[in-house]
C-alpha cells in the first residue's frame, strides 16, 4: 500500500484540556486502504489523539489533514460530514433501541434503506437480530452494531477507540477479525488499542506513543519484531521453559 493516496496526515499536533498538554507534537499518517494501530501505555495520549482528529479535544494546535484539507477549527459534525467516522470506547449504541432503529437514527444518510441493506449484508448476524434490543446483544454483537452505526454515513476513515476494551477474552479475536475486514468495506482504519500485539497483527503500520509523542513507528511486522518495542510497550510473549 506504499503507493496508495495519503488520507490522513497529523502534523506536530499538540493539545489537551485546560493548560495541560497531553499531546506533545504527534505526527503520523494513514494511506487509503490501511489499518494503522496507535498503541502505548496508559496515559500516553492514544485516546486524546483520537479525540483531536474528531474535533473533541478543546485545545489543539498543529495540522490535521484529511484528504489534503486541514480539519483544525472545524466542528465534529463538519468532520463527520467530510468522511470521518468514530466508534467510542463506551456509549456507542442505544441500548433501548432495536438493532435496525440504531441504524435508522443516524443522520446524514442519503439512501437509508439501501445503506442498511448493505450493512446487513456485511454483518449478517445483525440482520438476523434486527428486531432485538441493542441492550440484549452480547458484547461482540454490540461491537458489530457500533461499527455498523459508524459506517452508515459511508466514511472514508473510521477511528476505533479501544474497540476490545469491553469484550470478554473469548470475543477479542473475533473483534480483530472484524477490524481486518473493514477495508473491504471501502474504509480505512485508525485503531487506538491496548492489545497492541493483536492489533498490529491485522494492521499494515503502527505508532507507539509515549508521553504524548511518537516513540516508535513503522511497519507492523517491524514493530512486532522490535526488541525495544517489545520490552517497553508491547509486552513480551511468554516463553515456554522445558
From TrEMBL:
Domain ABC transporter: 8-236
Domain of life: Bacteria
PROSITE patterns: ABC_TRANSPORTER_2
This protein's record includes keyword Nucleus: no
Gene3D superfamilies given in the database record: P-loop containing nucleotide triphosphate hydrolases
GO annotation, biological process: L-amino acid transport
Gene Ontology molecular function terms on file: ATP binding; ATP hydrolysis activity; branched-chain amino acid transmembrane transporter activity
Keyword Hydrolase in annotation: no
Protein keywords: Amino-acid transport, ATP-binding, Nucleotide-binding, Transport
Entry similarity comment: Belongs to the ABC transporter superfamily.
Cross-referenced PANTHER family: HIGH-AFFINITY BRANCHED-CHAIN AMINO ACID TRANSPORT ATP-BINDING PROTEIN LIVF
Protein's name in the database: ABC transporter ATP-binding protein
Native organism: Alsobacter soli
Amino acid at each position: 500500500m506504499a503507493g496508495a493516496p495519503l488520507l490522513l496526515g497529523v502534523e506536530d499536533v499538540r493539545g489537551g484540556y485546560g493548560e495541560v498538554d497531553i499531546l506533545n507534537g504527534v505526527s503520523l499518517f494513514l494511506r487509503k486502504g490501511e489499518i494503522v494501530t496507535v498503541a502505548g501505555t496508559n496515559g500516553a495520549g492514544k485516546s486524546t489523539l483520537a479525540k483531536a482528529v474528531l474535533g473533541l479535544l478543546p485545545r489543539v494546535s498543529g495540522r490535521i489533514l484529511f484528504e489534503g484539507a486541514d480539519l483544525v477549527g472545524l466542528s465534529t459534525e463538519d468532520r463527520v460530514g467530510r468522511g470521518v467516522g468514530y466508534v467510542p470506547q463506551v456509549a456507542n449504541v442505544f441500548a433501548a433501541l432495536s438493532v435496525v432503529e440504531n441504524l435508522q437514527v443516524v443522520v446524514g444518510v442519503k439512501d437509508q434503506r439501501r445503506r442498511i441493506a448493505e450493512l446487513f449484508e456485511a454483518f449478517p448476524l445483525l440482520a438476523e437480530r434486527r428486531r432485538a434490543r441493542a441492550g440484549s446483544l452480547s458484547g461482540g454483537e454490540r461491537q458489530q452494531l457500533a461499527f455498523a452505526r459508524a459506517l452508515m454515513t459511508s466514511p472514508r476513515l473510521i477511528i476505533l477507540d479501544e474497540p476490545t476494551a469491553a469484550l470478554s477474552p473469548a470475543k477479542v479475536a473475533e473483534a480483530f477479525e472484524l477490524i481486518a475486514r473493514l477495508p473491504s468495506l471501502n474504509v480505512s482504519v485508525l485503531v487506538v488499542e491496548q492489545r497492541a500485539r493483536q492489533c498490529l497483527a491485522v494492521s499494515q503500520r503502527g505508532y507507539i506513543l509515549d508521553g504524548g509523542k511518537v516513540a516508535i513507528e513503522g511497519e507492523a511486522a517491524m514493530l512486532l519484531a522490535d526488541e525495544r518495542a517489545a520490552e517497553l510497550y508491547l509486552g513480551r510473549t511468554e516463553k515456554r521453559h522445558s
